[in-house]
Design goal:
Elements: E1 3-10, E2 13-18, E3 23-28, H1 30-35, E4 44-49, E5 54-60, E6 66-67, E7 72-73, E8 77-83, H2 91-103, E9 107-113, H3 120-135, E10 139-142, H4 147-158, E11 162-167, H5 173-180, E12 207-210, E13 213-216, H6 231-234, H7 239-245, H8 262-268, H9 274-288
Parallel strand pairs: 3-5, 8-9, 8-11, 9-10, 11-13
Antiparallel strand pairs: 1-2, 1-4, 2-3, 4-5, 6-7, 12-13
Helix pairs in contact: 2-9, 4-5
Length: 294
């Protein structure tokens, strides 16, 4: 039975990319509706085709992850676009994105743009943050305000992967995607000065070939709330906290008031940056105070 990957879902049809690089328009079998499973863009599927144009999806293979916004499955990596200025670089917002990405078992790549627009002191401060994130195990890139510079550094990283672009509003994610793939013509809007954040229009999700990889044409993570995370999950979403926690005296240590906590010791010694630990505590409190859903 032929296999393929859903690269677009529109009006009840699923467009499946086969190993032969053909795209077959398929419908889902009624069995999915009964099981309350919806095929998603990114799904690896088994299908049956009556001809070169049309077919039916018979089975969805197990997903390694699944996002709600944008609705997409089996994402390999998230390219997080943050700017050094306009809007200013924010570690709190970056850590929020990283937690959501880590929780969904997606590999993050941090890209800080507009580095040519900051003074020497600010530049050094942001580079120091970059070193902290690299020490925690993240891949960090720095680019100038020229979109072409970002493209040159990002293109090799897209090869063979399914990627989503996410990050601060107003940093030019859509502009970058338009330069990567000029026929995309994604709508871009300047930052709304009233709200201080960017606006973008979301359409159906589609995976497009860029370089030798597939990229979702919709910026990801429109909701940044920790709706699914439990308090004990948070530990695993900060790699350096997870590593240090292996030496905590108590299993299930939340690194708050517990005695002989290796994480707090690592913060005191400077092995874990204090701002990362502060964000961890802030997010933990947020999860704790979350209203139950019924």
């Amino acid at each position: 039975m032929p296999e393929g990957k859903i690269i677009k879902a529109l009006a009840g049809f699923y467009y499946v990319l086969t190993d032969e690089k053909k795209v077959i328009q398929c419908r889902g079998r009624g069995v999915f509706r009964k099981k309350k499973v919806s095929p998603l863009v990114g799904d690896e599927v088994l299908f049956q085709a009556d001809n070169d144009q049309e077919g039916y999806i018979l089975e969805i293979k197990e997903r390694k992850n699944e996002l709600v916004r944008p609705p997409i499955a089996n994402v390999d990596q998230a390219i997080l676009i943050f700017s050094a200025v306009e809007p200013d670089f924010s570690t709190a917002l970056l850590d929020r994105f990283l937690v959501l990405i880590e929780y969904n078992r997606i590999r993050p790549i941090i890209c800080v743009s507009k580095m040519d627009l900051v003074n020497e002191e600010e530049r050094e401060r942001i580079l120091n943050y970059g070193r902290d994130y690299e020490k925690a195990g993240y891949h960090v890139l720095f680019t100038s305000s020229a979109t072409e510079d970002g493209v040159e550094k990002l293109l090799p990283l897209l090869e063979g992967e399914i990627s989503v672009f996410a990050g601060q509003s107003g940093v030019g994610k859509s502009s970058l995607l338009n330069v990567l793939k000029p026929d995309l013509k994604l709508e871009t809007n300047d930052i709304s000065t009233h709200l201080g954040r960017g606006k973008h229009t979301t359409r159906h999700v589609e995976l497009i070939e860029i370089g030798a990889g597939l990229v979702a044409d919709t910026p990801g993570f429109s909701s940044l709330e920790f709706m699914e995370l439990e308090m004990e999950d948070l530990n695993y979403c900060f790699p350096e906290i997870e590593t240090a926690s292996e030496s905590c005296k108590f299993r299930g240590c939340l690194h708050m008031q517990e005695p002989k906590c290796a994480v707090k010791t690592a913060v005191e010694s400077g092995d874990i940056p204090e701002y990362r630990y502060e964000h961890y505590k802030q997010f933990l409190q947020e999860i704790k105070e979350r209203k139950p859903r019924y």
